[in-house]
Each structure stands twice: as structure tokens, then as C-alpha cells.
Amino acid sequence: MSGLNPIRGVIERAALSPDSIAIQSAKDEFSNSVFVDTVVRIAAKLRADGVRPGSVVGLRMDPFLNTVFLAALMHEGAVSFVARGNIVEEYASSIDSLYSDDPVFAARVTGGVHVSPQWLESAARLNPRIEPNDSGDDDSLVHLVFSSGTTGTPKGVPFTLRDLKIRTAAARVNWMPHLPFLSELGLDTASGIQTYFWSLFTGETYLLPGTAADNVVLIERARVQSIKTSPAKLKDLVAAAKTKNAEVSSVKVLEVAGSLLSPKLAATFARAFSAELVYLYGSTEAGTVTRAVYDPTDPQRVGRVFPTARVEIVDDAGVTLEKGYVGAVRLQSDYQVTRYWPPTATPTLEFRDGWFYPGDSGVLDAEGTLVITGRTDELINASGFKINPAWVESHIGGYRGISDFACFAFATDDGTKALALAFVSQNYINVDRFIAYMSERLGENAPRHVFRVATIPRNSLGKVARVELSGQIELARKQRSPS
């Protein structure tokens, strides 16, 4: 199909099965015929607005409407991405247009368009018979997914049409074991967008995730058999299923990605679901590279490497270490990207010698199983001792009354860095006892500074935004200090 817009296949399938469901959420659904008709009308409106092949267009709107705009932009040969505030702020000069149902957000870039009811009404009146734009080929850029940005600036990961075809096919093999499949990870993530485009390209119904309560409705209604999620979203899903006393026996496999899972949460899941719990490890840049059945006795063991991927552990000089030695993880896969967007003349440290460095530290055991020990770029130098906050979190375990917690770097009054912990609780917590509990488990590695917060900032994958958390605590301290 090189040179042919894949939306042509979507249109052809809709003509053959007009009443089949293209998009389904907990509250609404689109049949193939309605979806395609709406997509083409939106595409005609985008074309009238000046969107051209290769235009970089951000989307920030209701997720259901988002699915239509993603297909409409592919119809026009444009480059789509799901926008967040920090992405728009960082890359405003490289964005050709921004479409949003929020007029304030749309106005953040020159060329921003408010998708108002009037705009949609004008699109509905346009000719739905325009042809998809076939000016590109398989190497044409069609979509951008931005990295989490938990430790700094989010980075744009470019997907060509070829990338999307290969990655969606690999997704079906590697982490879509049973259908119907629900990705709780949204359209601003690699997993979410691959699930969407795989559904679009194959004619399967795309299950659009929403809140945890919405997703429970989808599981019951669609009889979902496999789910991909993050630890933070899994926690909410389990709570919603218990509250509703939901019928979730259809779920055979639940896969966790994005960050490590605590044994306490795994046990809570096991009481609500009878499904197999599986770890997936990888990155937006390289895709999924390992898979393993979750082992609560060793929650950092993320699995054996897929045949389509390579994993090495290296030292600071890039020399490959023998099995059993901890070092920096580097990845290769048959479908990894080799650069960030927008391209620059200066090489990035993440891509070196054909490898991608995700910023994780780990070890390969004698059997070739990967164990993640933490993040190389999150090590906190606390009074001369380097401490990995993710490792600390994994060893704290559950503490009665605390619903969420995270470690971060804390600037003390004397200017040194220390390991601190923020926690969320609706109950009274004796902080001294909590600190003593951590000290018993971790000794000198235990956090000495503890703060109660309303929420732990996390990205769409559930990873802790440690820089943001540290900034929030620092700002709160300044506001409480006398001027």
C-alpha cells in the first residue's frame, strides 16, 4: 500500500460493513458508516482551513471527538499529535495548527482553532465525497507521540506510516493476546495510539478508555478479555470494579506497563480479578521489549526479551557488562525510532551507536531475564550517597492509611539534597511512626523528610513526575515562610 492513504481501506470496509461499530466508549459509539462520514466531513473542513500534507497539527479535545480528528488528519496526510500544555509551550514554533474544544488552549499557538459547535456545524454541511490525500508514502511522517517528560522536557517521538504499520502489527503479537482488547492508556501514549490505529487499520472496534468507572462499564459491555494499563490506573480500576461489584470474569490477562507494580496492589488486583497479571517493559522510542508473568516476590523482574528486540547492560563507558552486573539498560528493536522530533544537528544522548538508552538501570540474570533496579537519571545524591527513589518506593510496601506515595529530591535549608517522600492519605498518619517504619525497612536509605500532599503528580502512564513534585513542595514551603 505504499503511496496509498490507509484511510482508503477504512472507507472501503465501512461500505462493506456499515453497521459494525468503529468506536465504542462507555457512553457512546460510532458505527462504521457514521464514523467515516464524520471523518471525511471533518477532513474537508480541515482542508478548507488550510491544513496540508505534512502540516503538524495538535489536538486537545473530547477523546471521542479526538478519534475522528486523528483519522481526518491522516485522510489529509497531515502529522497529528495529542497536545498537552508543556508540549505546546516547548514546541509552539514547530506547530502549524492546534485544534481544541477549549478556546483558551487553542489560542496558545498562532493558527489555533476553537472547535466550537458552530465549527462542527459548518463541517457537517461540507461535501463528504472528497478523496484522501495520497501524496505521501510509507516513509511520510504521520504522527507524533511525546515522551512523559517526568524529568524534564517532553520529547517528540516521530512515527512514519511504516512505523505505525510495523508497530501496530507487533502490538497484536506482543501485547494484545486476546480480543476484545482495552488499553487504559490514552491516545497521548504510544500504547494508546497503537491500539487505536491497529483497530482503524484492521476494522476492529476501538474501545475508547475513560475514567476507571467508564472502563468497568466497557469491560462488562464488550466482554473485554485483555487489558493494558499502568499501576496508577490499575489501582483506580480495581477500586471502581469493587464499588460497582462489576462482572469482570471475561478478563483473562491484565498487562502492566509504565512503572513497577507494588506487591500490595498486585494482591488487591488478585482479589478483584481472576486474570493473569503480566509485566511489559519498553519505551515509546523502542516499543515493548520484554514480557513476564508478574512475580510478587520479585516485583522488579520485568521478563525475557522478545525475539524482535535486544537488551544490553553497559557501564558508564558503554562497555557491555556480563550477566549479573548492574548498569545502564540500552535497547534495540526491529521497529525503534532513531531520532527525536523536530530533528536537530546535535545528536541526543538517548540515541547512540544504534542503541536507545531509556535512562533505566538494571541487570540481566543468568537466564537472560531483565531486572529493573531504577532510573539512572533519577539518582539522588543525598549527602554524598546516591539513592534511587524508585528502588526505595518498591521496598516501602503498603502502610496502613496511605493511598499513594512517591520519593523525590528535597533541597534542605543548608543547601544540600536529601531524599524526601510525599504521601496521600484521608486518615490521620503519625509521621514519626511512618518514618520509623521506613527506617526499619531501609536503614540509611530511608527518607527523613515527609510531606502530606493532596495528590502525587503523574503522567498518563502513571509515572511519578518527580521534578514537578519537588517544585510543588518547594513552592508550598516558600508560601508558608515569612517574607
Walkthrough of the structure:
This protein has 483 residues and is an alpha/beta fold. The chain has a domain at 380-480: 2-Layer Sandwich (GMP Synthetase, Chain A, domain 3), CATH 3.30.300. Helices cover 33% and strands 25% of the residues. It has 14 helices and 26 strands. The protein has a ten-stranded mixed β-sheet with strand order 9-11-12-13-14-15-21-20-17-16, with helices on both faces. α2 crosses α3 (63-75). The longest helix has 18 residues, at 32-49. The mean pLDDT is 90.
Which blocks of ≥5 consecutive residues have pLDDT under 50? none
Proportion of residues in helical segments: 25-40%
Query: What is the end-to-end distance?
Result: 66 Å
CATH-level-2 architecture of the domain at 380-480: 2-Layer Sandwich
Shape: globular
Rg measurement, Å: 23 Å
Please name the CATH topology of the domain at 380-480: GMP Synthetase, Chain A, domain 3
* Share of β-strand residues: 25-35%
> Sheet with the most strands?
10 strands, mixed
Fourth-tier CATH superfamily name of the domain at 380-480: ANL, C-terminal domain
> Within the largest sheet, what's the order of strands?
9-11-12-13-14-15-21-20-17-16
Count of helical regions: 14
Calculate the mean pLDDT score and round it.
90
CATH class annotation of the domain at 380-480: Alpha Beta
Q: Tell me how many strands there are.
A: 26
- Helix/strand-derived category reads alpha/beta
Offer a quick outline of the entry:
This protein has 483 residues and is an alpha/beta fold.
